What we know:
Elements: E1 3-4, E2 7-8, H1 39-59, E3 63-66, E4 79-88, E5 99-108, E6 114-121, E7 127-128, H2 130-134, E8 142-144, E9 149-155, E10 159-171, E11 184-194
Amino acid sequence: MRTEDGVASRGVPASHITLERGEEETVELGARKRSRFDRRTRMILAVAAIAAAAVNAGAGWTYWRLTGDEPAAGSATAEVVLQLRGRSDYAVPLRPGATGDLTVTVANANGFPIRIAEVRPGTGNAVADAERRDAGCERTGVAFTRPAFPVDWRVAANNVAVFTVPGGLSMSTNADPACRGGYFTIPVQASGDRD
Length: 195
């Protein structure tokens, strides 16, 4: 390959390279940037994000109140009072006069495991899903089927767990017609102790 004053020996501009006999063409490809995460890692992260969103959507905000200071290891247990949000079962929508399961999501943000002994209605009313609210569902008629449910739920330290109370909810026959077949968020109060 020959060039003189920016022009190849055959009168072709230097930006176009002409090879002489016996010269090999070599091409250097720039190193392709690798993604920070491979496909498998991105898929795992996406699934984890979806799972976290699903858990949080049903649970709403979880409010914790520990009575007294956190006990030292080996000392007496402290009572744990939880203000939670439960929800009706997505698989079986509530209908007037019928019962359905109550699903409760518990997020234990403590550095110790907890055991929940009882769940009961929390302060406030059941709230219908957005579609039913927009259709006029104000008087939901959704309530616990009993004043309290004894349970034996354990949640590891810094963990989230989902529990079901079979037949825990009912919808009264005087609920607004727009509430039929809806999904509901229900205030739940739970009590237990350090496990």
